[in-house]
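Case study: F-box domain-containing protein.
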Amino acid sequence: MGLNFSLFFRLHNGSHPPSPSPFPGLGDLPESCAADVLKYLTPVEICVLGKMNRAFRAASWADFVWDSKLPSNYSVLVQRLIGDVALIMSKREIYTRLCRLNPLDGGNKNVWLDKYSGGICLSISSMDLRITGIDDRRYWNRISTEESRFHTVAYLQQIWWFEVGGEVEFPFPPGSYSLYFRLQLGRTSKRFGRRIYNLEHVHGWNIKPVQFQLWTSDGQHAKTQCYLEEAGKWTLHHAGNFNVDARNESTRIKFSMTQIDCTHTKGGLCLDSVLIFPVEYKQRSSQRC
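Here is what the predicted structure looks like once written out:
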């Protein structure tokens, strides 16, 4: 009845129902042609076009569209991060799953795929690092915070010999990667919903620079150093870059952060994590060094 009334109203007012267009539109594009278009786009663009019409929506699920978006060693990554459940997943579902945070080693590491560069990102909690004096409450404490994806950071009150190290082995896809330490001078908390920070223990970082280093299993080495100066803000301190080529099934990286000049103490430092990500990866956090 509503349809008949609407038709009567338009005819009564001298208007006519629209006639179908004599020219084909995007909705008439064969699914195979739509898929050929999508494979040249970025993953974000594919998902946007997939909402345009039925043809592009169906084409956006074609496996061959996502083959070039997945890392060259994605089968190894899938086995490590997803497991056998990936056998019943489409390539798009695998890609989506890899882009999420995938916990490793009991949640002390997170791995995800950067959807813009196609490289792997790896975050290592302070719980998984070798920290000199970490078991002595006179020097270090573990504190809970919402400002870490691991919900816990290591807080240094005061120490003479500062040394942090770690090691990770992972099947990184070929590419260039950067390694950073995520640090903050001062201890933060919330009061009445506002973020405040305590600089009570901050001292000694402007006397001698902190040294950052990394080594890889194929002989690469990088070293940087800088003073820690900016307080109350999380910063990424660059340790160096390394390259992974197609011949490496797995790459082992050792890294360290030291300030072992025992002529003075240093303290008031929060250590959150170590980050490894593609050089092209765009970080929102400010970067130092």
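For the exam, be able to explain this: Residues 2-12 form the longest helix (11 residues).
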